[in-house]
C-alpha cells in the first residue's frame, strides 16, 4: 500500500529525513515512536504534501502512484488521511458543512455520486454514535475554540467519516486524558479492517495499550533505526531514548 | 502553489456578468445645465413641486465641490461628459406586465440569474426591476396593496402619492448634504418607493435589481422607504452590470424613515463591474444611504455584501433620534484586482438609551485597497447609549491593503463603547488542513472566506445569504493562498 524508500527531505538548510524506509501493507498498523524533533511530523507532512519541505531524494508510492508528485487534495482523494498533531481552527466554517464538502469532493474525484444533505446527515450521526461523540460537535465551527482534547476527537471523527485507506495519526494521543485517549483508540479500532492501514505516531507507549500495533518503529535522526513488534514499545518505555545517542545510528 | 501565482489567478478571474444588451435606448446627449434638469422632470411628467426641487438642488450643487477625503484614487470626473437620462424604448408606454417587456431584457435578467418570474413568485418576493433609468417590471403589487403597502417606482410615487413624497423626500438626505447627494436630487432618474402603513408587517421581502446598461450614462437612483409606527419591512437591492470600457458613475441616494417601534431591514448584494485587470471600465459607486430612526424603539438594520465596482464610497448611516432606537450595520466588502473601497457607517446617537452595532468584514486580494471608515457619535442627550464595533480585515496575498479609521465622539459620560479590530490572513496551515481533507485550494479559500463573513451572512434573508455566498465564491475564484 505504502512504500517509502530512502526518503530525504529538508526544511530550509536542514536535512530532517535522511534516507527513511517504511513499507506498510493493507490492514497493518504501524506505530512510529521517537524522541522530540526526530522528524515524525516531518514524515507525516511530507507524505501528505504540505508546502515548505523539499524532497531531496528517495521515493514514496501509495496505491501504486508516485505520492510525492500529487497535490495534497489528490492524496486525500486516493485515500490518505492525516490526523494533525495541531489541528487547525477554521473560524465560522461549520463542521458539518466542512465535512460534507470534504467527503463529497473525495467522492466526486473517485467518480462516486455526491451525498445529499439527508444521507449525509444520517451517515454523520451514525459515526458520532460509534465514537460516542456529542451532536453539538456538528453545529460548531471547525476546531474554533475547541479544547485540545476536542480537537483530537474531531480529527478522529473526520477520519471515521472519510474512511481513508491509510491514516497517519500524528501524536493524536498527546495531551489527552484517559477518556479522550479511549475515544481515539476506539476510533482507530472501529476502523481497523483488512483493507485499511494506519501509521500511529506516538510519544508514549500508553496508546499502544489500546491499539495493538503490528509493528513498532523507532525514528531517530531522520531514519527508522529499529523496528520490531509490540515488545519494542514496552522496551522503549523502560529504556527511554537515551540509548540512541550512545548507540548512534549503528543499530 | 505560491501565493503570488494564486493572486495572479485571482486577478485574472473574469467578470461573470460581463456582457451587454442590445436594446433601443432613448438617451439624452451628454451635458448638464438647467435645461437638462427641466427636461428630465418634463420627460417624467412631474408636478411643479418636483421640478422646483430639482432646480434648487441643481443650483445648490453648482456651489459645491467634489469631496476628496476618501482614500480612493481616480481621474477627475467630467460631469459634462455624462448623459443624464436614458430609458428603454419610450417611457410613456412603459410596460404594464412581463409580456410587454422586451424579450432581450428578460433574457439579460435570466443570464444574470435573476429569477424575475416564477422563481421569485415562488419565493414570495415582489420584484421591482430597474433597467437603466426607468422601472420596467413590477409584480405582486396587488397583494401588497391589500395590506396597504405601497411598492412602486419613485416616478410613479411622485404622481400617485405627491403628499408622501413632499413630506419625506430629501428629509433624511437633503440636497445640501453632499456633492453627490446634490447631484442626485437634481437629476435622479428613478428608483423605488416603499410605504408601510401603521402596524403592518410587510408580508414578503421586497427586492429590486438595479442594472447599469447604456454607455456613458450616469445612474442616479433614488430610494425612499417609510415605515410608520409598528411597521416592518425587509428590503433587498441587488445590482450587477455588463462589461463596459468607460467608467460609469453611480451616485444613488437611499433614505429610510422609521417611526415608533417600526423596523426596516435593508440588505444589499452588489456586484457591479469592477473594471478589467488594469482597473479600467469599472463602476464608480458613490452612494449616500441614511436611515432616520425618528420614533422611539425604531430599528434600522443595514446589511451589505459588496463585491463589485471599481471604486466604492459608501457609508450607510443611522440617525438614532428616538429613545431606545437601534441601528445596525453588517458589512462584507471585497476588493481585488485594482478595486478600491472606502466604506463604513455612521451611527449618530441622539436619543436616550440608543444602541448600535457595527460588524464590518473587509476582504482584500490582489492589489485591492480597502478602508473602513466609521463614525460613532454619542450626543449630549444620548444618556445610556451603547455601541459595539467589530472590524475584521482579511488579506489574501501581500499586495493588498486594509485600513481601519474609526472616529469616535462621545459627549455623554454614561455611554458604553466597545471597539474590536483584527487583521488576519488566510494561513498556509488553514489551506493545507482543508486540502488534506480533499478540498481544492479554491474551495478552501472560498470556505474560509465565507466562514470569515458568517456573522454578516447570518443577517441576510435566507435565499439571499445563499446568493451572497455564491457571489463571494465567484468573485474570489482563483484566489488560492
Ligand atoms: N518549519 C520548520 N522550520 C525549521 N525547522 C523545522 C520546521 N519544522 C520542523 N523543523 C525541525 O525539524 C526537526 C523535526 O521536527 P518534527 O518533524 O516536528 O519532529 P517530531 O514530530 O518528531 O517531534 C526538528 O528539529 C524541528 O525543529
Ligand atoms: Mg511532531
Q: Can you tell me about this structure?
A:
- The complex is a heterodimer of chains A (251) and B (481).
- The mean pLDDT of chain A is 91.
- In chain A, helix 2 (72-78) packs across helix 3 and helix 6 (148-162) packs parallel to helix 7.
- Chain A has 251 residues and is α/β, with parallel strands linked by helices.
- Helices cover 38% and strands 25% of the residues of chain A.
- The radius of gyration of chain A is 18 Å and the shape is globular.
- The two termini of chain A are 26 Å apart.
- Chain A is built from nine helices and ten strands.
- In chain A, the strands form two sheets. In chain A, strands 6-7-8-3-9-10 form a six-stranded mixed β-sheet, sandwiched between helices. In chain A, strands 2-1-4-5 form a four-stranded antiparallel β-sheet, covered by helices on one side.
- Chain A has helices spanning 40-48, 72-78, 95-109, 117-131, 136-139, 148-162, 178-191, 230-239, 242-247; strands at residues 2-11, 14-24, 29-33, 54-62, 65-66, 80-83, 166-170, 197-201, 215-220, 223-228.
- Chain A has a domain at 2-88 and 164-239: Rossmann fold (3-Layer(aba) Sandwich).
- Chain B has one domain (3-475).
- Chain B is globular and about 65 Å long.
- The longest helix of chain B has 15 residues, at 48-62.
- In chain B, helix 2 packs antiparallel against helix 3, helix 3 (48-62) runs antiparallel to helix 9 (179-187) and helix 10 packs across helix 11.
- With 481 residues, chain B is α/β, with parallel strands linked by helices.
- In chain B, strands 5, 6, 8, 10, 11, 13, 15, 16, 18, 20 and 22 form an eleven-stranded mixed β-sheet that branches. In chain B, strands 4-3-7-9-12-14-17-19-21-23 form a ten-stranded mixed β-sheet. A two-stranded antiparallel sheet of chain B has the order 1-2.
- Chain B has helices at residues 3-12, 34-43, 48-62, 103-111, 118-122, 141-146, 154-160, 162-168, 179-187, 428-435, 441-452, 454-457, 462-475, and strands at residues 25-27, 86-88, 126-131, 134-138, 150-153, 190-196, 206-211, 221-227, 232-240, 248-250, 253-258, 263-271, 283-293, 299-306, 311-314, 317-320, 326-335, 340-349, 355-365, 369-378, 386-396, 401-410, 416-425.
- Chain B contains 13 helices and 23 strands.
- Chains A and B meet through helix 2 and helix 3 of A and helix 10 and helix 11 of B.
- The structure holds adenosine-5'-diphosphate and magnesium ion.
Amino acid at each position: 500500500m505504502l512504500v517509502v524508500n530512502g526518503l530525504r527531505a529538508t526544511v530550509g538548510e536542514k536535512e530532517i529525513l535522511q534516507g527513511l524506509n517504511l513499507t506498510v501493507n493493507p490492514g497493518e498498523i504501524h506505530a512510529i515512536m521517537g524522541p522530540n524533533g526526530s522528524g515524525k511530523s516531518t514524515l507525516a507532512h511530507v507524505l501528505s504534501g504540505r508546502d515548505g519541505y523539499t524532497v531531496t531524494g528517495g521515493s514514496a508510492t501509495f496505491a501504486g502512484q508516485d505520492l510525492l508528485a500529487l497535490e495534497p487534495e489528490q492524496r486525500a482523494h486516493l485515500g490518505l488521511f492525516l490526523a494533525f498533531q495541531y489541528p487547525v481552527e477554521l473560524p465560522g466554517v461549520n463542521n458539518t458543512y466542512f465535512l460534507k464538502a470534504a467527503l463529497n469532493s473525495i467522492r466526486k474525484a473517485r467518480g462516486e455520486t455526491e451525498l445529499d444533505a439527508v444521507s449525509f446527515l444520517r451517515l454523520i450521526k451514525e459515526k458520532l454514535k460509534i465514537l460516542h461523540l456529542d451532536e453539538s460537535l456538528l453545529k460548531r465551527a471547525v476546531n474554533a475554540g475547541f479544547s485540545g482534547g476536542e480537537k483530537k476527537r474531531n480529527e478522529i471523527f473526520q477520519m471515521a467519516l472519510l474512511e481513508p485507506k491509510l491514516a497517519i495519526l500524528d501524536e493524536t494521543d498527546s495531551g489527552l486524558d484517559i477518556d479522550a485517549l479511549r475515544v481515539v483508540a476506539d476510533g482507530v479500532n472501529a476502523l481497523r479492517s483488512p483493507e485499511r492501514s494506519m501509521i500511529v505516531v506516538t510519544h508514549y507507549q500508553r496508546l499502544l495499550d489500546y491499539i495493538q500495533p503490528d509493528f513498532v518503529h523507532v525514528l531517530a535522526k531522520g531514519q527508522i533505526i529499529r523496528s520490531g513488534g509490540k515488545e519494542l514499545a514496552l522496551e522503549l518505555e523502560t529504556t527511554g531514548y537515551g540509548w540512541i545517542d550512545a548507540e548512534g545510528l549503528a543499530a | 502553489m505560491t501565493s503570488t501565482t494564486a493572486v495572479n489567478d485571482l486577478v485574472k478571474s473574469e467578470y461573470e456578468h460581463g456582457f451587454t444588451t442590445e436594446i433601443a435606448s432613448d438617451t439624452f446627449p451628454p451635458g448638464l445645465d438647467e435645461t437638462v434638469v427641466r427636461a428630465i422632470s418634463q420627460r417624467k411628467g412631474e408636478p411643479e413641486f418636483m421640478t422646483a426641487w430639482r432646480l434648487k438642488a441643481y443650483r445648490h450643487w453648482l456651489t459645491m465641490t467634489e469631496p476628496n477625503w476618501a482614500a480612493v484614487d481616480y481621474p477627475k470626473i467630467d460631469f459634462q461628459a455624462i448623459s443624464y437620462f436614458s430609458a428603454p424604448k419610450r417611457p410613456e408606454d412603459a410596460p404594464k406586465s412581463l409580456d410587454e417587456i422586451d424579450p432581450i431584457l428578460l433574457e439579460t435578467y435570466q443570464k444574470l440569474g435573476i429569477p424575475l418570474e416564477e422563481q421569485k413568485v415562488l419565493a414570495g418576493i415582489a420584484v421591482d426591476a430597474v433597467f437603466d433609468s426607468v422601472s420596467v417590471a413590477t409584480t405582486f403589487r396587488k397583494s401588497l396593496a391589500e395590506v396597504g403597502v405601497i411598492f412602486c417606482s419613485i416616478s410613479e410615487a411622485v404622481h400617485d402619492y405627491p403628499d408622501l413624497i413632499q413630506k419625506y423626500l430629501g428629509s433624511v438626505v437633503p440636497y445640501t448634504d453632499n456633492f453627490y447627494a446634490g447631484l442626485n436630487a437634481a437629476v435622479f432618474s428613478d428608483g423605488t418607493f416603499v410605504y408601510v402603513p401603521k402596524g403592518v408587517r410587510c408580508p414578503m421581502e421586497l427586492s429590486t435589481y438595479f442594472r447599469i446598461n447604456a454607455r456613458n450614462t450616469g445612474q442616479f437612483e433614488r430610494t425612499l422607504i417609510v415605515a410608520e409606527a409598528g411597521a416592518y419591512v425587509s428590503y433587498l437591492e441587488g445590482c450587477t452590470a455588463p462589461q463596459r470600457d468607460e467608467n460609469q458613475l453611480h451616485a444613488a441616494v437611499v433614505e429610510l424613515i422609521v417611526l415608533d417601534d417600526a423596523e426596516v431591514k435593508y440588505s444589499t448584494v452588489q456586484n457591479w463591474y469592477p473594471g478589467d485587470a488594469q482597473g479600467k471600465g469599472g463602476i464608480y459607486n458613490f452612494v449616500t444611504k441614511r436611515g432616520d430612526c425618528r420614533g422611539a424603539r425604531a430599528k434600522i438594520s443595514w446589511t451589505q455584501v459588496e463585491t463589485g465596482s471599481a471604486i466604492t464610497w459608501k457609508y450607510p448611516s443611522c440617525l438614532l433620534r428616538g429613545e431606545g432606537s437601534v441601528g445596525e450595520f453588517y458589512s462584507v466588502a471585497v476588493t481585488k484586482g485594482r478595486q478600491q473601497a472606502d466604506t463604513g457607517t455612521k451611527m449618530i446617537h441622539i436619543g436616550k438609551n440608543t444602541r448600535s452595532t457595527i460588524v464590518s468584514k473587509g476582504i482584500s486580494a490582489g492589489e485591492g485597497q480597502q478602508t473602513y471608515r466609521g463614525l460613532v457619535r454619542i450626543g449630549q442627550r444620548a444618556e445610556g447609549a451603547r455601541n459595539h464595533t467589530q472590524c475584521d480585515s482579511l488579506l489574501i496575498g501581500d499586495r493588498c491593503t486594509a485600513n481601519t479609521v474609526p472616529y469616535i465622539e462621545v459627549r455623554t459620560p454614561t455611554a458604553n463603547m466597545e471597539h474590536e479590530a483584527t487583521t488576519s490572513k488566510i494561513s498556509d496551515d488553514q489551506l493545507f488542513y482543508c486540502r488534506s481533507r480533499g478540498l481544492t485550494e479554491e474551495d478552501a479559500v472560498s470556505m474560509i472566506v465565507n466562514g470569515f463573513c458568517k456573522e454578516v451572512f447570518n443577517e441576510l434573508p435566507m435565499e439571499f445569504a445563499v446568493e451572497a455566498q455564491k457571489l463571494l465564491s465567484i468573485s474570489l475564484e482563483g484566489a488560492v493562498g
